[in-house]
Write a structure and sequence with these properties.
The complex is a heterodimer of chains A (about 270) and B (about 350). Chain A is mainly alpha-helical and about 270 residues long. Chain A has a single domain, classed as MetI-like fold (Orthogonal Bundle), CATH 1.10.3720.10. Chain A is built from ten helices and no strands. The chains are: A mainly alpha (about 270), B mainly alpha (about 350).
């Protein structure tokens, strides 16, 4: 049962990655080819998932869309971790007034809903993949900041840290050699969970028309376009939404599975 | 939508001295709660100030000349200058910020660049729509989450538990716009039972309670599905935690039934999880509402915000963003306060 969670998660994530990588070289049809005669086709042998209102093959668009989903997700999580983790470790090790202030600032950021921050940022800088990435990444910083800080505090209370200190090892070296490897698994689990948040946020923003510009094949934008023809055929709106759901489910299950593997105490529970 | 990390579980139960002078202790505890509340109120005000600064900073860097965008490309330089002066755009940003802040303190959000109406008056109708949406979804989600989480916890190694857990996983992964469109396809397009989009106010000249209800069913259901899925996970881990506690075993040993012991000892624990997550999820719920409003074309705050962003109507953007942040902070303040009341362990901690 536990293994099943991990394996299902891995399989879904692998599917996403394979689709994205494959789309660089091959898609069943041209993902930009407009065919007026093929509008809103239901799923068939030549178009496995049907076509959209422009006659573009949905499988091909989905595969191309997987690229931007992954790219924005990876970049946003990396941004959040790159800022949040070092700050969190530093705050957890030093525990001064400055560290307190940093943590408080993180809490304030947490009060700004991610999508609101994204809407404001996108409005200020115009919709582009980069803006969306920055908005999602910035909104996720406090999560990594808090987690790294809490985990670091736990590690700092251990005896071997005292031993390392007494041996005269510098704080930076302690952080690198002892703290980071210890908290890395936790951060990995969080990264997996943050991926699904990022994917949902990216899809939500492009659904609202605030993401990458019109015409670019993001899953959210595909849903938005498909919704216009809902009374004719539901496929073009539902299929990209299903893709988002599967990707998010994949990263959620992967995160849960990893956590269970890491913490045998939790395995009993969940 | 953000998925919060697991609520911090306090595993150490600090040994408490046996209570001697009961009246004295009660007073002391009351003081602790008050002190804790005062501290949180201060924190609330500080966050609000910081958040207002962030909002102003982001909004004021919007590209393009606001005056030009409003009057069009053919406007004369004199007219542009006049409108800049009228809106105070010729003043330095810090002065404008302080001016806006002073207005906020008086409850004055400024006037819309587009319509000239006071911002507060302009966003009030939207506030009612979003308020109904979130206000109905929140309690219903909590109501739905408790049985779902309880089934998942009590039969956690058997079929019903697996089904309940699976449902909550799926509900969490599915984006709100997908649920929304799916419900529209089923209930509006196929069955034709409910309208696909739009809104009718409950009261007022155009008010019609029956139509109001019909227009809100699907949007509220979408939010409830998303929130209940997430909440039920916390109900489940809260209950499972209680079930592995020694005191529950003791309760069973002294003759309580499984249900009786859980009701007596589990309720508070689960209430804590639910309250915590509701607080953390307030932001997600409001943001979810923005998307749901788009799916169902409801004239709520989210729609007003998106429209104002597109029109570069800065006072309205700032006003709505601020309102949303105030709502989020207020909810988390209330949750913290409720926490102090529910959890006796935190009362002594409030002192620190």
């Amino acid at each position: 049962m536990r293994r099943l969670t991990l394996v299902t998660g891995l399989a879904l994530v692998a599917l996403l990655v394979v689709a994205a990588v494959l789309s660089l070289g091959w898609t069943p049809h041209d993902p930009t080819l407009v065919q007026a005669g093929q509008r809103l086709q239901p799923p068939s042998w030549s178009h496995w998932l049907g076509t959209d209102r422009m006659g573009i093959d949905l499988v091909s668009r989905l595969m191309t869309g997987a690229r931007s989903t992954l790219l924005v997700g990876v970049a946003a999580v990396l941004l959040a971790a790159a800022v949040g983790v070092p700050l969190g470790i530093w705050a957890g090790m030093s525990r001064g007034l400055a560290a307190d202030l940093v943590l408080r600032a993180g809490d304030v950021l947490l009060a700004l809903p991610a999508l609101l921050l994204a809407i404001l940022l996108v409005a200020a800088r115009g919709g582009s993949a980069a803006t969306v990435t920055i908005a999602i990444g910035v909104a996720a910083i406090p999560v990594f900041l808090r987690l790294a800080n809490a985990a670091t505090r736990g590690v700092m209370a251990l005896d071997y840290i005292d031993a390392a200190r007494m041996a005269g090892i510098s704080r930076a070296a302690i952080a690198r050699r002892h703290v980071l490897p210890n908290i890395a698994p936790l951060l990995g689990v969080q990264a997996s969970a943050s991926f699904s948040v990022a994917i949902l946020a990216e899809a939500g923003l492009s659904y609202l028309g605030l993401g990458a510009p019109a015409g670019s094949p993001t899953w959210g934008r595909m849903m938005r376009d498909g919704q216009a023809d809902l009374f004719l055929t539901p496929w073009p709106a539902l299929i990209p939404g299903l893709a988002v759901a599967l990707a998010v489910l994949g990263f959620n299950l992967l995160g849960d599975g990893l956590r269970d593997q890491l913490d045998p105490r939790l395995r009993e529970w969940r | 939508m953000s998925i919060p990390t697991q609520p911090a579980e306090d595993e150490s139960h600090p040994a408490r001295p046996p209570s001697a002078g009961t009246a004295f202790n009660t007073t002391l505890r009351g003081l602790n709660v008050l002190q804790g509340l005062a501290k949180r109120a201060l924190w609330f005000a500080g966050s609000l100030l910081a958040a207002s600064g962030v909002i102003f900073l982001i909004v004021q860097t919007l590209p393009g000349d606001i005056a030009q965008a409003t009057l069009g490309l053919n406007a004369s330089p004199e007219a542009l200058e006049a409108i800049r002066q009228r809106w105070g755009l010729d003043r330095p940003a810090i002065v404008r910020y302080l001016d806006w802040l002073a207005g906020l303190a008086r409850g004055d959000l400024g006037s819309s660049y587009r319509s000239g109406q006071p911002v507060a008056q302009q966003i009030l109708p939207g506030l009612a729509v979003t308020g109904w949406l979130v206000g109905l979804a929140l309690p219903l989600a909590a109501l739905a989450a408790v049985p779902l989480g309880a089934v998942a916890a009590l039969w956690r190694r058997r079929f019903p538990g697996a089904v309940a857990s699976g449902l909550s996983q799926v509900g969490m992964a599915v984006p709100v716009f997908f649920t929304g469109v799916l419900l529209v396809v089923v209930f509006a397009v196929e069955l034709g039972w409910l309208p696909a989009n739009g809104y009718t106010p409950l009261t007022g000249p155009d008010g019609d309670p029956a139509q109001w209800w019909r227009h809100l069913v699907l949007p509220v259901a979408v939010l409830v599905i998303a929130q209940a899925s997430l909440l039920s996970r916390y109900v489940r881990s809260g209950l499972v935690e209680v079930m592995t506690e020694d005191y529950l075993r003791t309760a069973r040993a002294v003759g309580w039934t499984r249900w009786g012991a859980l009701r007596r000892h589990g309720t508070r624990n689960v209430a804590l999880s639910v309250v915590t997550v509701l607080g953390l999820q307030a932001a997600a719920l409001l943001v979810g509402a923005i998307i749901v409003e788009q799916v169902f074309q409801l004239p709520g705050l989210g729609s007003a915000l998106l429209r104002a962003v597109a029109q570069r109507d800065l006072p309205v953007v700032q006003g709505i963003a601020c309102l949303l942040v105030v709502a989020v902070l207020t909810i988390s303040f209330l949750v913290d306060a409720l926490y102090l009341v529910i959890d006796p362990r935190l009362r002594s901690k409030a002192r620190r």
